[in-house]
Design goal:
By secondary structure, the protein is an alpha/beta fold. The chain is built from twelve helices and seven strands. Helix 2 crosses helix 3 and helix 6 packs across helix 7. The longest helix has about 35 residues. About 25% of the residues are buried.
């Protein structure tokens, strides 16, 4: 049994780099750190609070085929709760095992609190890039708001920079519809980040183009950069027009409007019109 535990421990360590896991998250099954058992599939339930919500049917079916042939190579990690075993890490293997027709699955039973479970789920999924950016942002935000973790600590947990964590969390400021489209169309974080600071109307206008034409992150950034320059130039031109309008209004004593290449004088009475014509002749 010792050899089996050791082998499973090495397998799980290869799944999640040990330099990114605190000592309390050491996944090697030992009497002190966790109990390895063959659990009934029916006694295991998913953690509804875990960050990952999207699962590829194709990937799960492919894993199920592998499990049918080779078995479950790494145990899942669970905690016992209300007579059931809640999954901490390994939901894909659990789902695939059910499809493969297994009645039992190897599992390491651990004692973890809610924060531990969330941290471990994030570490497993983030390192394997199994979470979409919105799921990842939600998980980071939960660690920050519900468990009072600093961005620095979250960054250390998942092996990313603080700037990366902050940038990912900012995606939660996108309109709900934009977030749904991002997940559905599998748009990257780089593509969506420039939209975070835009008005909802602008996002609604440009997002269909991004999807339809397959814009890259660089093209999205260039689009907003170019439009910003145009907006700035238009604003300067508008300010210059207003200045000229004021000067002409003061000179002729009537309302003046400059629009593009057109100059309009607005006279209230025939007398004002006559006086203007005489001034211009």
């Amino acid at each position: 049994m010792t050899a089996l535990k050791s082998g499973l421990g090495r397998g799980f360590e290869s799944l999640i780099p040990t330099d990114l896991v605190d000592e309390e998250f050491d996944l090697t099954a030992t009497e002190e750190k966790g109990e390895l058992k063959q659990l009934k599939i029916e006694d295991i339930v998913r953690d509804e609070e875990q960050p990952r919500q999207e699962f590829s049917k194709e990937a799960i079916n492919a894993l199920a085929a592998s499990i049918k042939e080779h078995g479950v190579l790494q145990p899942i990690v669970v905690t016992k709760e209300d007579g059931k075993y809640k999954i901490v890490a390994g939901e894909r293997r659990w789902r695939a095992s059910k499809i493969a027709g297994l009645t039992k699955i190897p599992a390491i039973i651990r004692t973890l609190d809610s924060q531990n479970r969330l941290e471990l789920s994030i570490i497993e999924n983030a390192q394997r890039e199994d979470l979409n950016a919105i799921e990842l942002a939600t998980a980071y935000a939960k660690l920050k708001s519900q468990f009072n973790m600093e961005v620095e600590d979250i960054a250390k947990k998942v092996g990313k920079s603080e700037a990366s964590i902050i940038g990912t969390m900012r995606l939660l400021n996108l309109p709900d519809e934009a977030k749904k489209i991002m997940v559905k169309e599998k748009l990257t974080e780089g593509v969506m980040r420039p939209l975070v600071s835009q008005d909802e109307a602008v996002i609604k206008k440009v997002l269909p183009k991004i999807v339809k034409e397959g814009w890259t992150a660089r093209k999205v950034e260039r689009y907003f950069s170019d439009n910003k320059k145009k907006s700035s130039a238009a604003l300067l031109k508008q300010r210059a027009s207003h200045k000229d309008e004021d000067a002409l209004s003061e000179k002729y004593g009537i309302s003046v409007k400059i629009s593009g290449k057109s100059l309009t004088f607005k006279c209230k009475t025939d007398a004002e019109l006559k006086k203007l014509v005489e001034s211009l002749l």
